[in-house]
Amino acid sequence: MTEPKQPESTTRRVTFDARGAYLESVELSFYGEAHRRDWLALVEATRMRVDDEDNEETFRRVNFVALPAEIKKSTFYLRGGAHQKPGGSAEHLTVHWHFEWDRAPGGEPPPRLRQRSNEVGGYPHLLEALVAHWPAAEVIEGEVKGRYLVDASRWSLAFEHRAGLDRAEQVGALTVKRSSTVTMWSIEPPSGPVGRLLIADFPDAVKSISTFGTFRIRLGTHILAHLDQALWTGLATVLRPEPKGER
Which tops the pLDDT comparison, 204 or 239? Predict the structure, then answer.
């Protein structure tokens, strides 16, 4: 997964949840191993689009986009794809999967995008079908990235992230180190799926925090909610509530 550039500003108003946070996106990248016929059955059952019909690989690259039936403000949609990992057996394949949940843009999507979504049944139907026909191990381990907007009137970082380079601070049992990229911090040991942070301050009392790490999780229809819970729990270990009188 590529590391995002530091955002310049918030481009829209958001409504923070009860935590004082707004989850903007989650990415999950992982591998699964199964027999070739089972992977092909999964693709057929979910009606994912095959990128290269002429590709001679035993598992062709696939991609998908799935929108909710009704586009409401701040609803999530899912996009992603999969490709075969090079090497290995011709029949027992390792496939690299990538899921990305984003907030759906306002308004009705372009007809071509809606058609792509309808091909796979929309969201969350695609995820439900994928879980129902998943041929590999249910417990997966992969790279996960989340991006939150955090209400700075309710939360501050438990360490000073602006001053100095190559610094390290102690937050309880955790060591938080600033890397040479200036805005990237590492957490040692990782706090659940949160091992690194990319932090940006906005002038409207909002912090943008991207998290990076690895995580083991069971593939299921509620995986986004479980990832959000784990990511926020990990992030909250390096946040400090602002005193109520200063809000």
Answer: 239
